[in-house]
Amino acid sequence: MKDQSILVCGGGIAGMACALGLARKAFDVQILAPDVQRPPPETDTYHPRVYAISAASQRFLSEQGIWDLMEQRRLTEVTAMELYGDGGGTLQLEAWQDARDTLTWIVESGEIERALRQALKVYGVTWHDDHFADREADTVITKNGRRLKADLLIGADGGRSKVREQAGIAHQLKAYGDSGLVAHLNAEVAHQGVAMQWFTGDSVLALLPLPDTAEGPQVSMVWSASDEQAAEIMGVEHAMQAEQLSRQLQAITGGRLGKLKLRSTLHAFPLTLEKTAMVSAGVALVSDAAHRVHPLAGQGLNLGLGDVAELIQVLVAKPKHVGVGELRILEQYRRARAEPIAAMSFATDALHRLFKVQAVPVVWARNVGMSVLNKVPFLKRQLIANAAGISPRDRH
Ligand SMILES: Cc1cc2nc3c(=O)[nH]c(=O)nc-3n(C[C@H](O)[C@H](O)[C@H](O)COP(=O)(O)OP(=O)(O)OC[C@H]3O[C@@H](n4cnc5c(N)ncnc54)[C@H](O)[C@@H]3O)c2cc1C
Fold first, then answer.
1. What confidence tens digit (pLDDT) does each residue in 184-239 have?
2. With a threshold of 0.85, does the pTM exceed it?
3. HEC sequence for 302-317
4. Backbone angles phi, psi at 306, to 5 degrees
5. What backbone phi and psi angles, to 5 degrees, belong to 4?
6. Distance (Å) from CA 259 to ligand 1 centroid
7. CB-hemisphere CA count at 13 Å for 360?
8. What does DSSP say about strands 171-186 and 216-226: parallel, antiparallel, or unpaired?
């Protein structure tokens, strides 16, 4: 068979999952990315980035044999969500209200990465420890001057994708002027598997449940605050930062989880809304290279794994005599992903804008709206399914 070699550029979760899924379907696939060591996790030390993994992503990772490779005691089931508005509005979503056991799972990035790397070794996928630099026809040129054949180049090289840039794939970016502040915290009160989110008007704070440590209950914080707020707290030294953060979190959460104490390094990420044309002849983008959304719904990686699952499906279904890089095949992938990506980009962007408006009638309406929603079982079921990342066709 000719024109079937695939090179995945990027060794994050999306890139590794893509290479693994294709190897499992017997495609000729290799990875090009810096190879990072992924040692086994230490008790009570948690990877700085954690994800809320949707039901669809959980199913995909299970199908790839990844779910069972992870240390199960490090995965946290979310059974309920509590949302708080900036004017007394509240909304509680519980899995049982839609006859489910779990809304999402909170999983460390490091755990998924370690399991994927292990599985790629089992499948014997070649990993080129290098960077993408350029491409001439069906040949990729690496930073160290190696030349690798690729009838299809998959760009899974993150938000600052070089593959996207080299292929000239159209890309639009809107900066939110906000940063995502991420850290793990000790809590005084047990979270009981509840994910909590506060819309404060000028920021969105999410506290996600993690396994208890020797110091007691633990949560992971994703706080989307203005760049100025973020710079202020990032600019102070650790002890002062911890004290300042505890005070600010106490004011927002009203002590819902008792006193919250920084137990890790605080990281800040700029937040953007990005979309791209996703494909060109011989090139397909997946995950952050293809799109970025506001993290307030915790769906960026879930969207990325949705891309990966769809691209694999399209490549498996194509006629054998058609090359993997042919644009008409890649267009099928782009069309299939257009609707879910647009829907998630719109929903997260609209929610972000709704909660930024400070006009009194809008503040009143959004808080009353939340409390009214809280009393309508049918609409709550819909929201629970959305929170769990369940599409209408998957509903029971
Ligand atoms: C604050 C915050 C919180 C978030 N929370 C959630 C959440 O709860 N749930 C969720 O689903 N999503 C969440 N997201 C989104 C999520 O982090 C991203 O969608 C996800 O990390 C994207 O993974 P990726 O594999 O596409 O990219 P990355 O993880 O960025 O991986 C890119 C890979 O490409 C490699 N690379 C880069 N340049 C080159 C090159 N030139 N050549 C070769 N390789 C290269 C890198 O080394 C890396 O291996 C959050 C995002 C933020 C900012």
1. 999 999 999 999 999 888 899 999 999 999 999 999 999 999 999 999 999 999 89
2. yes
3. HHHHHHHHHHHHHHHH
4. -65, -40
5. -125, 5
6. 31
7. 0
8. antiparallel
Closest residue to atom 20 of ligand 1, CA basis: 301
Q: How far is the CA of 158 from the centre of ligand 1 (A)?
A: 5
Atom 11 of ligand 1: nearest residue by CA position: 301
Contact 315, 185 (CB under 8 A): no
Distance CA 230, CA 179 (A): 6
> Which amino acid, residue 31?
I
**How remote is the CA of residue 288 from the centroid of ligand 1, in Å?**
6
CA 102 to chain centre: 18
- What domains are there in the chain, each with its CATH number? 5-42+109-174+272-354 (3.50.50.60)
Phi, psi for residue 310 in degrees, rounded to 5: -70, -45
| 312-338: average pLDDT | 97
The minimum-distance atom of ligand 1 relative to the CA of 302 is 11
Q: Closest ligand 1 atom, CA of 299?
A: 11
Pairing of strands 194-199, 80-84: parallel
**pLDDT at position 364 over 70:** no
* Residue keyed to tokens 């990465």: 113
Tell me: the pLDDT tens digits for 97-146? 777 889 999 999 999 999 999 999 999 999 999 999 999 999 999 999 99
pLDDT tens digits, 258-286: 999 999 999 999 999 999 999 999 999 99
Q: Which residue owns the Cα nearest ligand 1 atom 5?
A: 298
